[in-house]
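User: Please fill in residues for this 292-position structure.
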């Protein structure tokens, strides 16, 4: 059977419904540091803090000796096919291709976030595409709570991040599972002011004045999935240390080859992404457990 030329893949344009849905549902796509990749693998320099000295007139500069290594970005492919009857393509009032693409965008966004944020397994490139933030961050950067989310727990989690030399107010983001919303609405500071402000008219939600993105992928899971059922997570960190490699997509291809005998063309959708954590000290995690 002849293969359709890969050049026929149609990339989603900025502002399309697919891109909009991805950004609405994926905190990683919306906030992570995007790195354009031109090959399947790429090394990103990961440098430690560099000290600064005062150099007197005629003095000698002192060499800094920062810790320097690399974060490895290794691309994986998130993809799905949908078989569509030709009659539905011709007769449907609703654009069935666009509808399928929009629903795929939501599932892709959630699974990408879960793979990057909450998967507990060891990276294998398939069921565990990446080493997630949860897996990479040490136990000293995590706080567990079995009861209601309290001001003290939230403040302590923020302090884990703020105590790092990689904390930066301008790049600080919070990513949380939507199940945190109900609890956050009732948390007040010592002056009885709410610390969680829900955004209106396009303004972002904020917690302690920091932008908050809610993601259904922010739960623990043994493997990557678009419907994780583990412990809800609230992650505070520096977005510059969420490294998202972008190889291609989201993009789609409609092929009639496979369904030639049955009048059932196949819609193929994919996105190729890589992910790595920059500095693990750049994050604090609050985990709601069954019995912390």
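Assistant: Residues filled in for all 292 positions:
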């Amino acid at each position: 059977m002849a293969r359709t030329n890969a050049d026929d893949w149609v990339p989603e344009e900025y502002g399309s419904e697919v891109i909009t849905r991805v950004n609405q549902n994926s905190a990683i796509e919306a906030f992570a540091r995007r790195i354009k990749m031109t090959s399947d693998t790429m090394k990103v320099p990961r440098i430690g803090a560099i000290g600064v000295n005062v150099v007197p007139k005629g003095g000698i500069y002192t060499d800094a000796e920062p810790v320097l290594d690399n974060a490895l970005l290794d691309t994986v492919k998130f993809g799905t096919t949908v078989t569509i009857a030709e009659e539905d393509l011709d007769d449907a009032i609703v654009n069935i291709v666009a509808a399928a693409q929009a629903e795929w965008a939501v599932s892709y966004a959630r699974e990408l976030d879960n793979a990057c944020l909450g998967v507990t397994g060891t990276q294998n490139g398939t069921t565990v595409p990446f080493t997630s933030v949860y897996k990479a961050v040490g136990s000293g950067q995590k706080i567990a709570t079995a009861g209601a989310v309290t001001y003290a727990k939230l403040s302590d989690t923020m302090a884990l991040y703020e105590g790092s030399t990689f904390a930066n107010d301008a790049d600080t983001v919070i990513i949380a599972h939507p199940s945190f919303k109900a609890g956050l609405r009732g948390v007040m500071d010592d002056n009885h002011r709410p610390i969680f402000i829900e955004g209106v008219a396009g303004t972002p939600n904020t917690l302690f004045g920091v932008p908050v993105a809610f993601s259904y992928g922010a739960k623990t899971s043994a493997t990557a999935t678009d419907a994780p059922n583990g412990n809800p997570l609230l992650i505070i960190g520096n977005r510059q240390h969420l490294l998202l490699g972008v190889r291609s997509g989201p993009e789609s291809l409609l092929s009639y080859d496979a369904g030639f005998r049955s009048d059932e063309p196949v819609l193929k959708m994919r996105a190729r992404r890589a992910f790595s954590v920059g500095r693990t000290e750049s994050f604090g995690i609050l985990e709601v457990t069954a019995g912390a």
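For context: The chain has seven helices and 14 strands.
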